[in-house]
Request: fold
Amino acid sequence: MRVMTQVAMVMNLDKCIGCHTCSVTCKQAWTNRQGTEYVWFNNVETLPGQGYPRRWEDQERWKGGWERTRSGKLRLRSGSRLKRLGNLFANPDLPEISDYYQPWTYEYKNLTEAPAGDDLPTARPVDTITGAPIDKIEWGPNWDDNLGGAVEHGPRDPIVEKIRDEVGEKIRFEFEQSFMFYLPRLCEHCLNPACVSSCPSGAMYKRSEDGIVLVDQDQCRGWRMCVSSCPYKKVYFNHSTGKAEKCTFCFPRIEVGMPTVCSETCVGRMRYLGVMLYDADKVAQAAAVEDEHDLYPSQLECFLDPHDPSVQAAARAAGITEEWLEAARRSPVYDLIATYQVALPLHPEYRTMPMVWYVPPLSPVVEAVAASGHDGEDAGNLFGAIDAMRIPVEYLAEILTAGDTDVVDAVLHRMAAMRAYMRRINLGEDRDETIARAVGLTGEEMEDMFRLLAIAKQEDRFVVPSAARADAEALTETHPFEDPGCPVAEHPDRVMLNLGPTRRSA
Amino acid sequence: MTDLLLWGVLPYVSIALLVAGTVWRARYDQFGWTSHSTQLHESRLLRIGSPLFHLGMLFVVLGHVVGLLIPQSWTDAIGVSDHTYHLIAVGTGAVAGAAAAAGIGLLVYRRLKVPAVRRATLRSDHLMYTFLLGAIVLGLLATILNSTGATGGYNYREGISPWFRSLFTLSPDYALMAGAPLAFKLHILFGFTLFALIPYSRLVHMFSAPVKYVFRPYVVYRSRGLDKIPAQRRGWENTR
Reply:
């Protein structure tokens, strides 16, 4: 057993209201610069829809992620190492800017500086890359938001195409018959990252302390293999610096025990951050299991129980501190993934072992039940509806369990049971243990799960151990404040690194 | 005097600039060390032009190494006649040279015609492309002139090659170059200027060919390693 630590995220999709606050605050923090105009480390997609970049899930086209060879080994989908080196001069799988969108701004100056006259001044759209005026904006980072234009664009969603081809049922985009939910996406900080594995320069790496995947900006040579090899299309090419950039999981904040910007600013409070302990020796094998449906259970098996004394002993031997072990025991992410098993990985079939997991939304089912005039919070009604509404379940299974609808069914049943169980409590009725038992949980667990999913406060949603205190002391030794290169040197009496009070503790 | 400067001094100045610039850049500007790819803006033309140019250049360089470093006496000794040698050299050289020229032609056309790529052109590119294009065109021109007999049957293996080899012994036989045809002379001057430009332009990416990739494990782990943060100032401006 080789114990490693990872700061992971879970998102409860039922609570995402699609407000894009996470995307905007992330962009303000990280990518509001020249060269990254089109880059959204975090974005929110409406599903069904094509996503950003367009049709990113179409791995036939982009060759992202891993594939299992006939001999049972893992190989990047983009081919052998030598093949990738042969493609250095021109990467055949690289998305172009138009696959993301042509970034634009408006000539706002016209509005404020136009001379007084009879005509209203206009602010024309301008391409931010070339500076040329654009006649008609035809695509954006979020063009099909809330199913806008879904009649035209929806059928081009790769998952919609797949379900049509395999299940033979068409997903409808007519207003009354459609379903939708939001999917906020950021880098998955995978246990078996394809981007890192494809980087010819060795500039990309996974941090051994917290599992955050980063690009060393000094070592990146701009070969662009990471951009195409990431199946989630979450590594971007900065066209100004000529280097790759990606979601940093806000590591400067994580290091001092603060949540990422997207998590902290989430209006729906649907994000959870916490430590996962995993056995690094198991990862390669778990990612190479033959049946794609086994990938979710095999990843679950990589995770270690932080309450298990033998795991704790092995973790201590591996140099993991008590603070991290304590955080691992209190990890909301571990509870949602392993204890209650309501969170699922995004596209496990890419075999990257992603570490941002999702609680699938029950809302398409609840809404359909309620719309048909039935009680949308009755356990029996919901269970029946989950079994009857194949299309949303098939769709969720395609994105979260490599198409295994049984797992999605089980999770949705658990969510539906929690709804029904808690409704009785809220109405002052007796606790109905049979509801909990029907989905393999106790009433107590059900209430705990409810607290975590519905009303948890920040300190319970974000349990991030601080790595900063010891580091800060080491840092002031190597980087004294008198150093002219130090950005806080100008007012050493006023500006300090933001430590101490911001750290969240139990 | 001019001969001494051009063929006895300039090559060393060029190589000194190349070495010093590369060392400086490696130490202070790792962040700027990239190919500055523009594939994000335009892929269709690049996918033809770039491999054509790069692979063509690879063989062109190989051809130069063979032609300049292997003395005629060696090929004579193994029984390769002058005629056979030139047949092979011009034959393979023409293919490689044509590929490189067609590739760079397409790339330059793309750089001028695609607005986003044009905007992404760096200041150093103007100078670099001038000398790169110049060197390739002059090289092709010299080869054509020489093989059509326009240079009066000049044998570069008796003039340019021995001079080039004498550079390595630090006793440049610059007088050998006096008799070379003008096209060859210009090609060499453009070539040495280009060498000097390598570390100061995007050409520097040629030194980071990722050979090690074939041998390393797929996933790279690194510790946060605070002790490894360099305390010295970087070579570019601080952000404001």
User: Anything to note?
Assistant: Chain A has a mean pLDDT of 90. Chain A is about 35% helix and 15% strand. Residues 7 and 275 of chain A are 5 Å apart (CA to CA). The longest strand of chain A covers residues 3-12.
